[in-house]
Design goal:
Elements (H helix, E strand, L loop, with lengths): L2 E4 L2 E3 L2 E3 L4 E2 L4 E2 L4 E3 L2 E4 L3 E4 L7 H11 L7 E3 L5 H4 L2 H7 L5 E3 L1 H11 L5 E3 L5 E5 L2 E7 L9 E5 L4 E5 L18 H16 L3 H13 L6 E4 L10 H10 L7 E6 L5 H16 L4 E6 L5 H10 L2 E5 L9 H12 L6 E8 L5 H11 L3 E2 L4 E4 L4 H16 L1
Parallel strand pairs: 8-9, 9-10, 10-11, 15-16, 17-18, 17-19, 19-20, 20-21, 20-22
Antiparallel strand pairs: 1-2, 2-7, 3-6, 4-5, 7-8, 12-13, 13-14, 14-15
Helix pairs in contact: 5-9, 6-7, 8-12, 10-11
Length: 395
């Protein structure tokens, strides 16, 4: 069922309440998500994006109840990823000759995924499409936010920015707008989305935000492709993105570790105690990698000025859970963050050196050599771990 969002603009998407994983198994969606598609009904009828493949038939059937599909004049594909374009093959079976407006890279993406030679019309930043009643669609390329094919579409007079993946969240709700949902939930999901998906592209995002703002467009609404539409003070999320894109950090230190027989766990807790005793104002969070969601931990890393990473020595190296998490951090290209390493060992004791090497390769700056302890920590080792935490805090 379509929902009116503004004048002659309707939401015709799908709320996915049960979604728990996204991008395969790479991203946790504890609060579900939505696939937001929009129908503009002016003198011309325009469909902006579709939904994910599992809901393609449902989407087309529901859309056909709201409008004669043959009356759709234009289809806009802001991004070719299948959570947005997945219903296109089903839709195009019904209206095969309708023009599809997208970037040049999106043509490559759509042809590569669906192997169809549809009626593509390539657009670039600044191109316009008249849709009647004095209104236009203006296209803005958003390359690498987060695919090379991404773009946004701006509707004049109604002043709506259809932003696709930018400014979105994985958040299922029967309420469409930001002023109707819990703001804490909303911003927690928004920063998690940025931290896990957009962080590697922060430098490009800064330039793109500057470019978009230089157009001096009045933006009264930001209609995202996932989650909630920004209706009340929509520029607040652009301001947040400007902060997050500038090597963001809070007064927080996050400790992440895995352990075999709880020796490294004991060190983690004592290091946290030392940090807190040296600086009561700093926020310290401690996570066992094996027991927490990795995307939630990445969000905490994103907010942190330093990450303290721990692993016992295992087979002359580190536990694979820790190695995998470091690799994930490396892929996100965090900037301006420090680290220190710690861990217990029984025989050879290589873990701290391995952690140092991997964290430096991931782009983190080392505070000191690190702390390792032979066998299970006794009282002296616990005191040494506390002192280690104090040195980290002062550094």
């Amino acid at each position: 069922m379509k929902k009116l969002i503004n004048a002659n603009v309707y939401w015709v998407g799908k709320v996915d309440w049960e979604l728990k994983k996204f991008h395969g198994e790479e991203y946790s969606t504890h609060k579900g998500s939505s696939y937001n598609s929009y129908l503009i009904q002016e003198e011309k009828n325009v469909l902006i994006d579709t939904v994910w493949i599992p809901y393609a038939e449902e989407f087309v059937e529901n859309l056909s109840k709201e409008i004669d599909l043959n009356q759709i004049d234009y289809i806009i594909v802001n991004h070719g990823e299948i959570d947005h374009s997945g219903a296109l093959p089903e839709l195009m079976k019904r209206i095969p000759d309708k023009p599809i407006f997208c970037t040049e890279n999106a043509v490559k993406s759509l042809k590569g995924q669906f192997h169809q030679a549809w009626n593509f019309h390539v657009v670039k930043t600044g191109d316009k499409l008249e849709i009647g009643n004095g209104k236009e669609l203006i296209f803005v390329e958003m390359r690498m936010l987060h695919w090379p094919d991404s773009m946004a579409t701006y509707l004049t007079k109604d002043n709506i920015l259809f932003s696709n993946d930018a400014f979105g969240q994985h958040y299922a709700s029967d309420k469409l707008f930001n002023d109707l949902v819990d703001p804490c939930d909303l911003f927690n999901e928004a920063i998690k989305y940025y931290a896990n998906i957009l962080t590697p592209f922060s430098s490009m995002l800064r330039k793109k935000l500057e470019e978009v703002l230089s157009f001096n467009l009045q933006i009264d609404m930001i209609a995202t492709s996932h989650g909630i539409i920004w209706r009340e003070s929509p520029l607040q999320i652009i301001e947040r993105y400007s902060q997050w894109a500038n090597d963001y950090q809070e007064n927080q230190i996050t400790i992440v570790y895995d352990t075999m027989w709880n020796g490294t766990k004991t060190l983690a807790e004592k290091v946290a105690e030392g940090i807190e005793s040296a600086d009561p104002d700093v926020v310290v969070k401690v996570y066992n990698i094996a027991k927490y969601d990795e995307n939630d931990m990445i969000t905490e890393v994103f907010k942190s000025k330093a990450v303290i990473i721990g692993s016992p020595t295992y087979s002359n190296g580190i536990l694979h859970s820790v190695a995998g998490f470091i690799n994930l951090m490396k892929s996100l290209k965090f900037k301006n963050k420090q680290f220190a390493a710690f861990g217990c060992y029984g025989w050879s004791g290589e873990s701290v050196n391995v952690l140092n090497e991997l964290m430096e390769q991931a782009g983190f700056h080392r505070i000191e050599e690190g702390y390792k302890n032979l066998w299970n920590p006794d009282q002296e080792a616990k005191r040494a771990a506390i002192e280690f935490g104090k040195r980290i805090s002062k550094a």
